[in-house]
Design brief:
The complex is a heterodimer of chains A (176) and B (452). Chain A has helices spanning 16-20, 26-34, 51-59, 115-126, 144-150; strands spanning 11-14, 42-46, 62-68, 74-80, 88-89, 104-107, 132-137, 154-159, 166-171. With 176 residues, chain A is of the alpha+beta class. Chain A folds into two domains: 11-80, TusA-like domain (Translation Initiation Factor IF3, 2-Layer Sandwich); 88-171, TusA-like domain (Translation Initiation Factor IF3, 2-Layer Sandwich), CATH 3.30.110. Chain A is elongated. Residues 1-5 of chain A have low confidence and may be disordered. Chain B is globular. Chain B folds into three domains: 1-140, no CATH class; 180-285; 289-445, no CATH class. The N and C termini of chain B lie close together (10 Å). The longest helix of chain B is centred in the middle third of the chain and has 39 residues, at 177-215. By secondary structure, chain B is an all-alpha fold. The chains are: A alpha+beta (176), B mainly alpha (452). The interface between A and B is medium-sized, with 29 and 25 residues. Chain A: It comes from Sinorhizobium medicae (strain WSM419).
Chain lengths: 176, 452
């Protein structure tokens, strides 16, 4: 079994264009956070020091480091605390860090079991070999794992820091 | 790799268990065993073991083979022992029952069947314990629900050893004083180890994991969960100490029984509070039939334990508090077992049959495999019959007991028919029943599709 010991590179998210156009970036930031790989950090670029966000991210299990950039903008690095559940991966998952960004994101947290399992397997059918999908679930999908493996898909996932949401990446295999 | 696959022989355990339940209930309807014979009469012993080992023991073993991997999120170890274990347990039980009937003077059987049956049972449960304990040992720290199962397995070992010692005395193989003293005084303790230790502890552990799963309730460990574990385990430790003190012929454990009962009441109170909290905090608003039927079983657990601890109700419950043992076995353990079978069998069948085509083609929902309306009527009749049978034992009215157990048997058979219909996909509308690529499940044998 491959277990990743190093963390993937931080994901960068620039909220300055959203703010410039008069938009509300909070939802977009949360989506970016949900899309993070297990263990992945988020580098946020903002025109001010986003104080209110620190508390929110603290609650999601992220610590932060701030740095003022030239021109008065701020760079904040949100790093997941080590307390996050360990990442589980399928036996054949070769280096999930190198997987491409997911092309399908599913929020299945409101669905009753076994519907999340059906949705993920159906989504995997739609994707091409090598493509990745990402899903949020309210339970660890223990009966889904063997079914993914049987179909030749690879997966990596874990609970978020609050242990209420399970995040899973599935890379569609050739046999799929 | 994490994840749980289908346990191939679980359905075979369930099928055998259901047959033993029907056999046991039929025997009661036929006037066999207590209250038509004494509590310690061979007929009662035969009946009790058909229900406790044949129905509840096989049911729990089959369920744990499937759900211990779910509790610890690790695959079952040594799963190839599942079939040999079943192949030892069934003849072991039949020999044991044959031995009991020999004690009652039946022809064509011999009391020598008692220790040989016990040996096969010990070997069968031994294999099951190897599989389950090896699976539990792969995970550190052990999640709390799995700890209940671990304690339950410890109690199973103790119950099997004590029961084995009984068979040696009953068959005349051993005439040593300690063993005879154990048989004379230790029967209630043997029953406590089996029914309260092994079966109840394991059921509580699995319920702490499965109830939040089915109801989408928070499954974080609460201090009350731990308190249930520790008070319950302390009660069991007193029971074990009592057995040891009988065997070494020391006094002083006489008072300890009431302490153990008090601890058990405390554990039952805390557990009841826990299951009520799970129900209140559930995110799934629909309450499925298996959950409603499970809560009826929790009520029976609570009622039987509290009445057992109260001297007045305990004294009124007949020889050996038989009415309360009946409520505990058929209201709590059997009620919960039937309720969970009603959820587990359709789910496992659905996964076994439609797993290969999920996401590729339209498949029925799990709910389509069963007919809730009919089944809820059967559950209603079942619990009503158990209450009536319990009252008839309190009232020492064997005629009413037979009528009540007949109703109970009918409801049980009704539920079994629902389970068979789920296995055979009979309730599923024909166009959806077997899409291309789906594998038709066998009634109780595994499909020979490679299991990972």
């Amino acid at each position: 079994m491959t277990v990743e010991t190093h963390h993937p590179a931080p994901r960068e998210f620039d909220v300055r264009p959203i703010l410039r156009s008069g938009g509300e970036p909070f939802q977009a930031i949360m989506e970016a956070v949900n899309g993070l790989r297990p263990g992945q950090a988020l580098r946020l670029l903002a025109p001010f020091r986003p104080q209110p966000l620190f508390k929110v991210m603290e609650g999601r299990g992220f610590s932060h480091e701030t740095q003022e950039m030239q021109g008065g903008d701020w760079e904040v690095l949100f790093t997941p605390k080590a307390a996050g559940a360990p990442v589980e991966v399928s036996a054949d998952a070769d280096n999930p860090d190198s997987w491409p960004d997911p092309i399908e994101n599913l929020d299945l947290t409101e669905l009753d079991p076994p519907e999340p399992m059906v949705r993920i397997l159906a989504a995997a059918e739609r994707l091409q070999p090598g493509e990745v999908l990402f899903a949020l679930l309210s339970r660890e999908p223990i009966f889904l794992f063997p079914e993914l493996s049987k179909r030749g898909h690879q997966w990596a996932g874990n609970f978020d820091e609050t242990r209420t949401t399970f995040r899973i990446f599935v890379r569609v295999g050739d046999k799929g | 790799m994490p994840g749980a696959t289908l346990s191939p022989w679980t359905m075979s355990y369930f099928a055998a268990a259901c047959l033993f339940l029907i056999a046991g209930e039929s025997a009661m309807v036929g006037g066999y065993g207590y209250p038509f014979a004494a509590v310690e009469a061979p007929a009662t012993l035969a009946l009790v073991h058909v229900v406790a080992i044949g129905w509840l023991g096989l049911l729990m073993t089959g369920a744990l083979l499937q759900f211990v991997p779910v509790l610890v999120a690790a695959p079952l170890r040594a799963g190839r022992l599942a079939l040999p274990a079943l192949a030892l347990l069934i003849p072991g039980l039949l020999l044991l029952v044959g031995g009991f009937t020999a004690l009652g003077g039946a022809q064509g059987v011999s009391t020598a069947m008692l220790p040989s049956g016990a040996l096969l049972l010990a070997m069968g449960f031994g294999l099951a314990i190897i599989m389950l304990a090896a699976t539990l040992l792969t995970v550190r720290p052990l999640p709390l629900p799995a700890r209940f199962v671990a304690v339950g397995l410890g109690a199973l070992i103790a119950a099997v050893l004590v029961g084995g010692a009984f068979t040696l005395v009953l068959s005349g193989t051993v005439t040593n004083y300690a063993a005879i003293a154990l048989l004379l005084k230790g029967v209630p303790l043997h029953a406590a180890l089996g029914l309260a230790g092994w079966l109840t502890f394991s059921a509580i552990g699995v319920s702490y994991r499965l109830l939040p799963m089915f109801m989408l309730a928070p499954d974080d460990t609460r201090p009350t969960n731990r308190a249930v574990l520790w008070t319950g385990a302390a009660a069991l430790a007193i029971v074990v100490a009592g057995i040891v003190s009988i065997a070494v012929d020391s006094d002083g454990m006489e008072e300890a029984g009431s302490v153990a009962a008090l601890l058990a009441v405390f554990a039952a109170l805390l557990y009841s509070a826990d299951v009520l909290r799970l129900f209140r905090e559930r995110r799934r608003k629909i309450v499925e039939l298996n959950i409603r039927a499970s809560y009826a079983a929790f009520a029976a657990l609570f009622a039987s334990v509290v009445m057992f601890a109260l001297p007045a109700t305990r004294a009124a419950a007949g020889e050996g508090a038989a009415a309360l043992v009946y409520l505990f076995v058929f209201g709590w353990l059997t009620g919960l077992g039937l309720a969970q079978l009603y959820k587990i069998v359709p789910f496992l069948t659905w996964l076994e049959c439609y797993g290969p085509v999920l996401g590729r083609t339209a498949v029925p929902s799990i709910q389509d495999l069963v007919e809730d309306k009919r089944a809820s009527l059967w559950f209603f009749v079942y619990y009503l019959a158990v209450i009536a049978a319990t009252f008839s034992l309190f009232a020492e009215c064997p005629g009413a007991f037979r009528v009540a157990t007949l109703a109970q048997l009918c409801a049980t058979v009704g539920l079994m028919v629902e389970l068979v219909r789920a296995r055979t996909l009979s309730s599923v509308a024909a166009p959806l029943r077997l899409p291309a690529g789906a594998s038709r499940p066998h009634l109780f044998l595994p499909i020979s599709r490679p299991q990972e």
